[in-house]
Amino acid sequence: LPLSPEFLAAQKGRIAYLETSRGCPYACAFCLSGRAGKTRFLPLPQAFQDILSLANSGAGTVKFVDRTFNADRARAAAILGFIRERAGRDIPKGVAFHFEIAGNRIDRALLDAVENSPAGLFRFEIGLQSMNPETLLRARRRTDMSRLKENIKALISTGKAHVHLDLIAGLPGEGLESFKAGLDEAVSLKPHALQLGFLKLLHGSAMREEPETYPCRFDPLAPYEVLETPWLSPEDIQDLKCAERGLDKSYNAGR
């Protein structure tokens, strides 16, 4: 990372991005991260040094862009513990840390770190993608839904962390009624924010390279967003676009 004095000075008031691992242990058909070989980790001493440098740069948030931050549970707990122990001392008060985590890999060590932290120190983003188990299997994503939901409830119940959930419209096997049911189920978990996104057919992803298995029509221009699937008509997708705007103006706005 180019953590020069000039770079750090430019972070004031901004979101500072930090990568402490590359790759992902999962191989979801819509994503590229799991196709980059074995997950590699930055040595913890270097990660700790970079955390302190960015936390003291004047940035309001340090956002970890690790694809699955808690792929290694023990390592994730070590980083959370390091931040928690230094919050308000070596790390200025008010700086928040954002992580993308796998909800089914939340464990007691992560929950303990959150429960013993100052409120607002940690923010977690969890990709549900779909609440339909058949759709997740088609997308090559294995998830224990019962465990996932219980873990999310436990994380939210700590009252210490901001929890953001993501759903993706346009995944294989999911029609409008299934997506609506999944949206209701996701809302029932009571996250602080719920993002309704739309499938992107990325170059190099299985969904882009295997049209026979994953038939759909998508925009030929970046970001290659889905326009129609065998389960969602163009009109269905427009309805979901309206729902996305409504969700942002109501639920995500705190109304």
Topology:
Elements: H1 5-9, E1 15-18, E2 21-22, E3 40-41, H2 44-55, E4 61-64, H3 73-86, E5 96-101, H4 108-115, E6 122-129, H5 133-138, H6 145-157, E7 162-169, H7 176-188, E8 193-198, H8 206-209, E9 217-218, E10 226-228, H9 234-249
Parallel strand pairs: 1-4, 4-5, 5-6, 6-7, 7-8
Antiparallel strand pairs: 2-3, 9-10
Helix pairs in contact: 2-3, 3-4
Task: Supply the key terms.
alpha/beta, six-stranded parallel sheet
**Weakly predicted, low-confidence segments:** none
Largest sheet: 6 strands, parallel
Could you tell me the mean pLDDT? 96
Strand content: 15-25%
Instruction: Indicate the percent of residues in helices.
Output: 25-40%
Q: Helices and strands: which structural class?
A: alpha/beta
Q: Give the radius of gyration.
A: 19 Å
Number of beta-strand segments: 10
Net shape? globular
Q: How are helices and strands ordered from N to C?
A: HEEEHEHEHEHHEHEHEEH
First-residue to last-residue Cα separation: 40 Å
Order of strands across the widest beta sheet?
1-4-5-6-7-8
Protein described:
The protein is α/β, with parallel strands linked by helices. The chain is about 35% helix and about 20% strand. It contains nine helices and ten strands. The chain has helices at about 5-10, 45-55, 75-85, 110-115, 135-140, 145-155, 175-190, 205-210, 235-250; strands at about 15-20, 20, 40, 60-65, 95-100, 120-130, 160-170, 195-200, 215-220, 225-230. The strands form three sheets. The protein has a six-stranded parallel beta sheet with strand order 1-4-5-6-7-8. The protein has a two-stranded antiparallel ribbon with strand order 2-3. Helix 2 (about 45-55) packs parallel to helix 3 (about 75-85) and helix 3 (about 75-85) runs parallel beside helix 4.
